[in-house]
TrEMBL record:
<feature type="region of interest" description="Disordered">
    <location>
        <begin position="1"/>
        <end position="39"/>
    </location>
</feature>
<feature type="domain" description="ABC transmembrane type-1">
    <location>
        <begin position="63"/>
        <end position="346"/>
    </location>
</feature>
<dbReference type="GO" id="GO:0090374">
    <property type="term" value="P:oligopeptide export from mitochondrion"/>
</dbReference>
<feature type="transmembrane region" description="Helical">
    <location>
        <begin position="204"/>
        <end position="222"/>
    </location>
</feature>
<keyword id="KW-1133">Transmembrane helix</keyword>
<dbReference type="GO" id="GO:0015421">
    <property type="term" value="F:ABC-type oligopeptide transporter activity"/>
</dbReference>
<feature type="transmembrane region" description="Helical">
    <location>
        <begin position="174"/>
        <end position="198"/>
    </location>
</feature>
<feature type="compositionally biased region" description="Polar residues">
    <location>
        <begin position="1"/>
        <end position="11"/>
    </location>
</feature>
<dbReference type="InterPro" id="IPR011918">
    <property type="entry name" value="ABC_MsbA_ATP-bd"/>
</dbReference>
<keyword id="KW-0547">Nucleotide-binding</keyword>
<dbReference type="InterPro" id="IPR036640">
    <property type="entry name" value="ABC1_TM_sf"/>
</dbReference>
<dbReference type="InterPro" id="IPR011527">
    <property type="entry name" value="ABC1_TM_dom"/>
</dbReference>
<feature type="transmembrane region" description="Helical">
    <location>
        <begin position="103"/>
        <end position="124"/>
    </location>
</feature>
<dbReference type="InterPro" id="IPR003439">
    <property type="entry name" value="ABC_transporter-like_ATP-bd"/>
</dbReference>
<dbReference type="InterPro" id="IPR003593">
    <property type="entry name" value="AAA+_ATPase"/>
</dbReference>
<feature type="transmembrane region" description="Helical">
    <location>
        <begin position="281"/>
        <end position="303"/>
    </location>
</feature>
<feature type="transmembrane region" description="Helical">
    <location>
        <begin position="62"/>
        <end position="83"/>
    </location>
</feature>
Length: 625
């Protein structure tokens, strides 16, 4: 009756009053995800300040929501009064039909105001909730884009994405529901209690004893049920995990004749789920019976007391009706208020997790007065005595006293065993990290003195496996240069030997390349990445050659594309192919973060050192593939 739309549950059906709320809560216990992974609560409401600040930007909507809230609370309380009139005057024997109509019209008017007011309140309150969440998401993502890759090693993308979705959903719940529920129910509890005293002071005192007797056991049962439910969901998750494990390892299970053992193991997990579910349903069964007994029992007792009063002529039938309805509203309001604080703490927990993402400072940021890189770009790279440790692995240096001067236009192949530090060189050139000692320079300017965006503007990076986004072929190519028109795109595609297969795609450049480009072969993805780098047309090329073996024809197509890409550019290439090292102006051999040899392929092959060993193993293997 109070039009409690904000407590809408996942089924979309509004649940009203105390019974509705209880049902909603116990259904939530059965729900798959609702309480199973209940998010952590904060210790205080402090972090909600950020939510307040975000909402305060929309004073008009807040004012409108508040007005609607006042109107609906008033209209809700007016309903019992309306019923009182209708019952006492509208049902009076021998009454004038015109007089009866008046009271019913009055009641209808209240209902109309309540309906419209509730719709407006729901609209504005939810609007604010959604808008606040949208603003927070935008701000968080903007900050995330500024953070260096090191941050994502310590904070998993899965965790961050869960903050962006579930934590923001909790905030939405707080703004769009909890605050409104709290305000409305406080108004209803106060207003309702005053009205009850006005109607029947003695019966109200009786009710004051009954309400806690209803609310307290329900709250206690509710808590127990929530704990048991959580355990129950964990057990169900165990069953799920076991199914996945066995299914994905089915060949091993069967090859080792472990079917009966797996069945027994699964049986035990299923029985554990059943045992805990039995406890849950027992608590819920008892809880339901207690609720029915308490609520309907007290209504019956009140009516009984009222009936005696009516018989004695001390009280009217309409007053009894108004009293019962208002009593229900007030009890429901108190019931709701018991949940509000917990919900707010949960919201504060979510807000503090989002705050962390919002306030993380970028380690790699432009200096206050960035030094301009010389124009036109030359493409000279220099590493002087660079020592670098990854923040997550401070004990080992990925590069040790590394010195390398790369001349404009030179092609330097970097080879070395796995973990030697080859990719680390690229990370430092892009300035994803700053070395602990030594200096990296681009065209004579130390990277730390320039704006990272200016540095990256001058670099094209071709990763091992072409990183494609879920977009069409055109946008995947233009990622290197959004100004490129179709003519330029086709020219790059041609040079990258990608023209033919792109033309053969169902919609040419408009073809959607699917999640992570799964619709293209490895060689095709590499050629897209090469075309993208061609479009970028940067003076420095960082090329991480693919290790995956391609068939001879793709290999040749990729190689030709790479040759065109490397021409007239300073190129650092992590080389896995003999063809590449042969063509390089210089080969740098890296081991455990240090340069151990340098020279051309012929020189190094003759020297009989690490390169000669690697070449005979690694390149022979890839050439044979
Ligand atoms: N993000 C990281 N955090 C911590 N340590 C890292 C990280 N990336 C690389 N390392 C470590 O730094 C060292 C150098 O790694 P790097 O990736 O540069 O080697 P690599 O020569 O490119 O190897 P591969 O040929 O296997 O790709 C290794 O010991 C590696 O374990």
């Amino acid at each position: 009756m109070d039009g409690n739309v904000e407590t809408q549950d996942t089924t979309g059906a509004p649940r009203r009053g105390l019974i509705g709320r209880l049902r909603r809560r116990s259904e939530a216990e059965d729900g798959a995800e609702t309480d199973a992974q209940e998010p952590k609560k904060a210790k205080s409401l402090g972090p909600l300040k950020m939510v307040y600040a975000a909402a305060a930007k929309y004073p008009t909507q807040i004012a409108l929501a508040f007005v609607a809230l006042l109107i609906t609370a008033g209209a809700t309380l007016a309903i019992p009064a309306g019923f009182k009139m209708v019952i006492d005057r509208g049902f009076a024997e021998g009454g004038d039909p015109a007089d009866i109509a008046r009271w019913f019209r009055y009641l209808l008017m209240i209902v109309g105001v309540l309906a419209i007011g509730t719709a407006l309140r729901f609209y504005f309150v939810s609007w604010i909730g959604e808008r606040v969440v949208a603003d927070i998401r935008l701000k968080v993502q903007q900050n995330l884009l500024r953070l260096a890759p090191g941050f994502y090693e310590e904070n998993s993308p899965k965790e961050i994405s869960s903050r962006m979705t579930s934590d923001t959903a909790i905030i939405e719940q707080v703004v769009g529901t909890t605050v409104s529920v709290a305000l409305r129910n406080t108004l209803m509890a106060i207003g309702g209690t005053i009205y009850l005293f006005y109607l029947a002071p003695q019966m109200t005192l009786g009710l004051a004893l009954v309400i806690p007797a209803i609310v307290i056991p329900i709250t206690v049962f509710g808590r127990r049920l929530r704990t048991v439910s959580r355990t129950s969901q964990d057990r169900v998750a165990d069953v799920g995990a076991m199914v996945t494990e066995v299914l994905s390892g089915m060949k091993i299970v069967q090859a080792f004749n472990q079917e009966s053992r797996e069945h027994a193991r699964f049986g035990a997990a299923v029985e554990r789920t059943f045992t805990i579910a039995k406890r849950r349903i027992l608590i819920r069964a008892v809880m339901t019976s207690v609720i029915i007994l308490m609520i309907f029992g007290s209504i019956t007792l009140l009516m009984w007391r009222g009936a005696v009063g009516v018989a004695e002529g001390a009280i009217s039938g309409g007053t009894i009706a108004a009293f019962v309805i208002t009593g229900g509203l007030v009890a429901g309001a108190f019931g709701s208020l018991t949940e509000v604080y917990g919900d707010l703490l949960r919201g504060a927990g979510a807000a503090s997790r989002l705050n962390e993402l919002l306030n993380t400072q970028a380690v790699i940021a432009p200096p206050a007065r960035p030094e301009k890189l010389p124009e036109p770009p030359r493409g000279a790279l220099s590493f002087r005595n660079v020592t670098f440790r990854y923040p997550t692995r401070p004990e080992t240096a990925a590069l040790k006293d590394f010195t390398l001067e790369v001349e404009p236009g030179e092609t330097v192949a970097i080879v070395g065993p796995s973990g030697a530090g080859k990719s680390t060189i690229f990370q430092l050139v892009e300035r994803f990290y700053d070395p602990q000692a030594g200096t990296v320079r681009l065209d004579g300017v130390p990277l730390t003195k320039a704006d990272p965006a200016d540095i990256r503007e001058r670099i094209a990076f071709v990763p091992q496996d072409g990183v494609l986004f879920s977009a069409d072929a055109r946008d995947n190519l233009r990622y290197g240069n959004w100004q490129a028109d179709d003519e330029a795109i086709w020219e790059a595609a041609r040079a990258a030997n990608a023209e033919r297969f792109i033309k053969e795609l169902p919609d040419g450049l408009d073809t959607y390349l699917g999640e992570s480009g799964t619709r293209l072969s490895g060689g095709q993805q590499q050629r897209i990445a090469i075309a993208r780098a061609l479009l970028r047309d940067a003076p420095i090329l960082l090329l991480d050659e693919a290790t995956s073996a391609l068939d001879a024809e793709s290999e040749q197509l990729v190689q030709q594309a790479l040759d065109r890409l490397m021409a007239d550019r300073t190129t650092l290439v992590i080389a896995h192919r003999l063809a590449t090292v042969r063509k390089a102006d210089r080969i740098v051999v890296l081991d455990e973060g240090r340069i151990v040899e340098q020279g051309t392929h012929t020189q190094l092959a003759k020297a009989g050192g690490l390169y000669a060993r690697l070449a005979s193993l690694q390149f022979a293997a890839t050439e044979a593939a």
